[in-house]
Amino acid sequence: MENVYGYLMKYTNLVTGWQYRFFVLNNEAGLLEYFVNEQSRNQKPRGTLQLAGAVISPSDEDSHTFTVNAASGEQYKLRATDAKERQHWVSRLQICTQHHTEAIGKNNPPLKSRSFSLASSGNSPISQRRPSQNAISFFNVGHSKLQSVNKRANLPPDHLVEVREMMSHAEGQQRDLIRRIECLPASGHLSSLDQDLLMLKATSMATMNCLNDCFHILQLQHASHQKGSLSSGTTIEWLEPKIPLSNHYKNGADQPFATEQSKPVAVPEEQCVEESGPLAREPEEISADDEVEDTCDNKEDDLGAVEEQRSVILHLLSQLKLGMDLTRVVLPTFILEKRSLLEMYADFMSHPDLFIAITNGTNGATAEDRMIRFVEYYLTSFHEGRKGAIAKKPYNPIIGETFHCSWRVPKSEVASTVVSSSSTQAITNHTPLSEETLSQVGSDYYTVRFVAEQVSHHPPVSGFYAECAERKMCVNAHVWTKSKFLGMSIGVTMVGEGVLSLLEHGEEYTFSLPCAYARSILTVPWVELGGKVSVNCAKTGYSASITFHTKPFYGGKLHRVTGEVKHNITNTVVCRVQGEWNSVLEFTYSNGETKYVDLTKLAVTKKRVRPLEKQDPFESRRLWKNVTDSLRESEIDKATEHKRTLEERQRTEERHRTETGTPWKTKYFIKEGDGWVYHKPLWKLIPTAQPA
């Protein structure tokens, strides 16, 4: 085969980023080489990858990027000018890789079967092997084709035991590396905070995590081949490390820390006045007439590449360990959205017309219709609530923080959105509600009220409540956010549940929330949802099971969601759903009819909030105003100072309550059992038709 050559962009590191380089695929030697430019082609190459045993993977980030992962562990992340050029390079690289991998496999037959004890680390195979032995000749690594998978399946079981011992030895070496780095002085020519050493420390942790995932996959493949070949549609997914690393990172203690040295911050005089002294904790009646349509446009840009913040991220990663709870960790300010977590929960209600349409009065809608409509509303809420897949996080609410808002929905708009399960109409082109329409009074529109409060600091628990009194429906929820460090990603588990009450029907729908994952935190971060959630109505016997699929280890689509609505008594599936939670959803009903919901075209109803001057000092927008204004002006240092001021005040007040033995008193929510309930829920004011 003739050689392939041309310019590609190569990702170098966090500092340099992407650079154009001239690449040459040497088919005869099985090498991928690159040069600074075409003119220096006759000189020594800047870099060379051995393709035997390599894996060539198109990236899901875009249609131009792909990676070349050599058997030695070295990786090239490359980007072509378009999808066609990427396919050309990927195809030629895969052909060359397969040819040279099979050649090595013929020349290096598998090792003889041997048994090794996992406890005998002193006599492990890795300590007996010559340092100069080629890794490629030892690992008979094949290309990801069915033929090579079958070759691996024929390996004796104790070959995996040998690999496990080698990985155990590698984990020991990695522990030694971490200890040596941490024993260095904090300052001087070579310090423990040297950026290159921090990078080495962080990436070595992620590497061991990845190797453990790969080993787990090999075990699954070997076990499946003992019973029979893997089916063609099988995908192997991963969320967290399958084999946790040892708990040895002494810097990972569960203590609050900041990403930079603390320094005194000047607090504006008026802020000191309004924040001093005890605040009234009595519930406040918010009049909907005081609220006006929200004109604040806090549009979020994606983080993109994070090269400019590399020192902040590396310093943060150096103090984390796998599985560490991030509740007390102060994350860098530049990754923050310009809204509080409490307001994010409100943004999950950005389609109030679909929320109100769940119940269509005592006549004309069945229990099956109501369950299906709730699932439709539930799945459409995440796109706006999560702002697509932008990899930023909202402010962590401080204890006592509240957020109030409401929505006005014309009754004609709700009527047009109530679509029975026998219809093929798509919810795609709702026109935005005009100010003239929203200004109608009395019975011309429905009002949906929302209130949220941070009821606990440790653990961080938020309560939120929404109601439409005229439709006799309300939802009450409490959520505890638990964040964990997973190597090169961060996982957030939403612990808690919500209950939707339809008082006209005496029905309660209990639901849970999916997990969220921030991936690729060292390069170009992105967010995905994952996990299984359920919706249950005990009275009607209907339930829904929904799965948010994370990106499989091999292949697969991003942001995929599937689910089904079932009548438990008859074990009948009445509706199935599939698609992407931030794009298009497809609902298929038991009668064969189908409905599509295009979330990118689904109109968002703007919430109504009180002006800042009328808000309580602890309401989210007023509380975080200085941080939000600084982020909007891209003044990260100033935003960090304001944020630290709020957090330090919270710690001071918490210490004072602890010293005086004063319990915290919530404002709107009351603790009942393990949950939190709004103090004046609709079901206490309006009797239900038939109590659930």
Automatic annotation (TrEMBL):
CDD domains: PH_ORP10_ORP11 (cd13291)
GO cellular component, one term: Golgi apparatus
Catalytic activity from the UniProt record: a 1,2-diacyl-sn-glycero-3-phospho-(1D-myo-inositol 4-phosphate)(out) + a 1,2-diacyl-sn-glycero-3-phospho-L-serine(in) = a 1,2-diacyl-sn-glycero-3-phospho-(1D-myo-inositol 4-phosphate)(in) + a 1,2-diacyl-sn-glycero-3-phospho-L-serine(out)
One GO biological process term: lipid transport
One Gene Ontology MF term: sterol binding
Main location as per UniProt: Golgi
Pfam family, one: Oxysterol_BP
Region described as Disordered: spans on this chain: 274-296, 635-659
Protein name, UniProt field: Oxysterol-binding protein
